[in-house]
């Protein structure tokens, strides 16, 4: 059997999940990997068959998307050619984690594909989202359209939605508490974070997309993004201060850490994730502004933890997917 696994390269969550799924897929035959996008620091250990420019957004420094940098990064001509040139008829199964090039190439070549992603959980109207409709619903529907859907979210909102894929690296950690707080807020610059965090009486570990060398300012340590260092910090932290992504908060909740979520402004998916997390009991703050210190200190003082049940079902999910959707010759 020949399988293509196409992965979104914006942010680190898609690649992090793929690190768990790739070895499982390799048990079933020859696996080719495709990554498109430009904003991930985490990498796969396996070689890529296709590395494409794709269609990515760029993190800003004030809590949102850098629209001008995103516009400059676009290469619609290359995107068009990649969609039309990608050779897909050789594959018995095409799996997609919110990756647009292969998804649209499948449509053009009239081939079925399977979503294996967090984003496809929004196919279901039961998945939490703000009451006011947002044009970004079109992105959920048309950015990476596939034939079938296997979704992941904080809860099983529908029959095709599963709880998060928690990587073996995380499941094998022994959680402790050394008193520091771990921070991953890629849409904020380090100076803004240090300005507010340095006013508290606790230790902080900021993981920054913008730094190559670790340094310290008072009670705040700044590290470059590194998978092993981040996992070690999160395993031994008191809590995680993070954006409205999915994998990071899910892993912290699994490790029974306190979590405070600050979704990116203007990023609808993160607003949806923050709403879903809040329904679990996770506190949410919508901006780092003059009111932020009050929210931050309240969170630091609160020892309440959210209890979740994220069983290890990834092997069974992959096995069921192969049985149900792989082409039989």
List keywords for this structure.
18% strand; 7-stranded parallel β-sheet; alpha/beta; 33% helix; 13 strands; 6-stranded mixed β-sheet; globular; 329 residues
Question: Mind explaining what this structure looks like?
Answer:
- This protein has a seven-stranded parallel β-sheet with strand order 3-2-1-4-5-6-7, sandwiched between helices. A six-stranded mixed β-sheet has the order 10-11-9-8-12-13, sandwiched between helices.
- Mean pLDDT is 89; it is low at 66-72.
- Strand 4 (93-97), helix 4 and strand 5 form a beta-alpha-beta unit.
- The protein has 329 residues and is α/β, with parallel strands linked by helices.
- It contains twelve helices and 13 strands.
- Helix content is 33%, strand content 18%.
- The longest helix is centred in the N-terminal third of the chain and has 13 residues, at 13-25.
- The radius of gyration is 20 Å and the shape is globular.
Strand content: 15-25%
- Rg over CA atoms, rounded to whole Å, is 20 Å
Query: Which strand order spans the largest sheet, edge to edge or round the barrel?
Result: 3-2-1-4-5-6-7
Please tell me what the overall shape is. Answer: globular
Number of strands: 13
Structural class: alpha/beta
Q: Average pLDDT, to the nearest integer?
A: 89
Helix and strand sequence: EHEEHHEHEHEEHEHEEEHEHEHHH
| N- and C-termini, Cα separation | 9 Å
Percentage of residues assigned to helices: 25-40%
Low-pLDDT windows of residues? 66-72
Largest sheet: 7 strands, parallel
């Amino acid at each position: 059997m020949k399988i293509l696994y196409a992965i979104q390269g914006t942010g680190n969550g898609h690649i992090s999940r793929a690190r768990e799924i790739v070895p499982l897929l390799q048990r079933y035959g020859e696996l080719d990997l495709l990554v498109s996008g430009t904003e991930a620091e985490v990498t796969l250990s396996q070689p890529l068959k296709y590395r494409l420019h794709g269609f990515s957004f760029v993190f800003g420094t004030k809590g949102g998307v850098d629209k001008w940098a995103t516009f400059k990064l676009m290469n619609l001509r290359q995107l068009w050619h990649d969609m039309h040139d990608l050779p897909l008829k050789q594959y018995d199964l095409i799996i997609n984690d919110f990756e647009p090039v292969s998804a649209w190439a499948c449509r053009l070549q009239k081939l079925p594909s399977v979503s294996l992603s967090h984003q496809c959980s929004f196919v279901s109207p039961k998945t939490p989202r703000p009451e006011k409709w947002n044009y970004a619903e079109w992105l959920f529907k048309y950015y990476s359209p596939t034939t079938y859907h296997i979704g992941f979210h904080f809860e099983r909102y529908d029959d095709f939605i599963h709880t998060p894929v928690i990587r073996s690296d995380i499941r094998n950690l022994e959680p402790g508490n050394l008193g520091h707080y771990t921070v991953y807020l890629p849409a904020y610059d380090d100076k803004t974070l240090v300005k507010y965090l340095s006013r508290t009486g606790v230790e902080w570990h900021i993981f920054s997309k913008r730094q190559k060398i670790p340094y310290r300012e008072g009670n705040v340590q700044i590290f470059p993004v590194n998978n092993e260092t981040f996992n070690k910090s999160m395993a031994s932290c008191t809590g995680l201060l993070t954006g409205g992504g999915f994998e990071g908060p899910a892993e912290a909740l699994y490790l029974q850490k306190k979590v405070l979520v600050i979704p990116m402004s203007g990023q609808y998916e993160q607003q949806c994730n923050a709403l879903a997390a809040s329904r679990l009991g996770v506190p949410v703050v919508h901006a780092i502004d003059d009111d932020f210190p009050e929210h931050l200190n309240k969170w630091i003082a609160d020892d309440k933890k959210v209890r979740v049940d994220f069983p290890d079902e990834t092997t069974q999910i992959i096995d069921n997917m192969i049985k149900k959707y792989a082409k039989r010759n």
